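Example record for the data management plan.
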Amino acid sequence: MQVLGDTGLNETNIHFLPLSDSMLIGLTGRNASGKSTLVEWFSDKGMKSVSCSDSIREWLREQDKEITRDTLIEGGRNLRREGGGGILAEMLLEILKGEDAVVDSIRTPAEVEALRLRGDFTLIEVKAGENMRWSRLQNRSRPGDPTTRRQFVEQEKREIKAKDAAGQALDATAMMADLQVLNDGSLEDLYDKLDDIWGTIVRQQ
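Corresponding structural encoding:
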């Protein structure tokens, strides 16, 4: 692993960096690691913002079910059971039709494999310590978030390693990342790291 400050370039996966004029960036990471902040940053670069969870939300609305973190997780499992592990990403590719985009909340290796088929895909893992992420989660007070530290930890344990092909596997997904960014400081520090990452990706065009 080559380390550039707190930004890591994963030499194992570096051959997957984009070689085309289009750009598809995916984000993976644990709860409250700061993925939404990265989505906003890349969106400001002119990239369309999408999420693998968008398909689940639409499915939940069709089922007339409340949208919470738990129902999103279970809805994703149901869709993967029916359509395979990469179904959410496959649906996004059909929607995007080659557009430049940043994809939030990639949670399974099968989703990564599906997105790599486009040929211009870069996966970024967003990392932050547990204490930092718990503090951020409390501050954001997003509907469906755990309300106690114990719930937060237990929920994370369920998400990091899949029990079957339909489940989430954040650790296995992170192992497929091309780049890593440690988001444990100020916004200014994060933006500096993202400037470096942007330059790395653009140089591969």
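Summary line stored alongside the record: Residues 1-5, 11-19 have pLDDT under 50 and may be disordered.
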